[in-house]
């Protein structure tokens, strides 16, 4: 059963400007593993915008927005084929009763935008 759906659209240019204006944006928002992935991708704003959109989309799927946890508590990873998935901190799992759930993630880009879609499925 689906217990949450969230989507987010991020302007890639906005993320690029934030990266230039706010040096601590990356370290304050993303985990070390995510930052390593970004470095492997040459800190491409499109990649970072997609990752940010995932965090926002998941917060919307939870129904709270970013309340009661930090964006760093949501970590975007990729499998060997590049498929995105998220790992969430145990504090989020406990607070939202997500111990036995599956989180589905999809990310897409255009020249201007990055979009992420998240589904939280119960009992998987």
UniProtKB/TrEMBL annotation:
Swiss-Prot/TrEMBL keywords: Cytoplasm, Fatty acid biosynthesis, Fatty acid metabolism, Lipid biosynthesis, Lipid metabolism, Magnesium, Metal-binding, Transferase
GO biological process, one term: fatty acid biosynthetic process
Record bears the keyword Cytoplasm: yes
UniProt cofactor(s): Mg(2+)
Domain 4'-phosphopantetheinyl transferase span(s) in chain numbering: 4-89
Catalytic activity: apo-[ACP] + CoA = holo-[ACP] + adenosine 3',5'-bisphosphate + H(+)
Cellular compartments annotated: Cytoplasm
GO molecular function: holo-[acyl-carrier-protein] synthase activity; magnesium ion binding
Residues noted as binding Mg(2+) in the record, renumbered to the chain: 8, 56
Gene Ontology terms: cellular component: cytoplasm
Residue ranges of the TM segments: none
EC number: 2.7.8.7
Function description: Transfers the 4'-phosphopantetheine moiety from coenzyme A to a Ser of acyl-carrier-protein.
Family: Belongs to the P-Pant transferase superfamily. AcpS family.
Protein's recorded name: Holo-[acyl-carrier-protein] synthase
Organism: Clostridium vincentii
Lineage of the species this protein comes from: Bacteria, Bacillati, Bacillota, Clostridia, Eubacteriales
């Amino acid at each position: 059963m689906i217990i949450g759906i969230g989507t987010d659209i991020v302007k890639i240019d906005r993320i690029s400007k934030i990266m230039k204006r706010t040096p601590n944006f990356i370290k304050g928002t993303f985990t070390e593993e995510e930052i390593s992935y970004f470095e492997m991708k040459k800190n491409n704003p499109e990649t970072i915008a997609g990752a940010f959109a995932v965090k926002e989309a998941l917060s919307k799927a939870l129904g709270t927005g970013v309340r009661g946890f930090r964006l760093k508590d949501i970590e975007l990873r990729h499998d060997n084929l590049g498929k995105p998935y998220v790992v969430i901190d145990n504090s989020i799992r406990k607070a939202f009763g997500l111990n036995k759930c599956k989180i589905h993630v999809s990310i897409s880009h255009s020249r201007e935008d990055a979009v992420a879609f998240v589904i939280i499925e119960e009992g998987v």
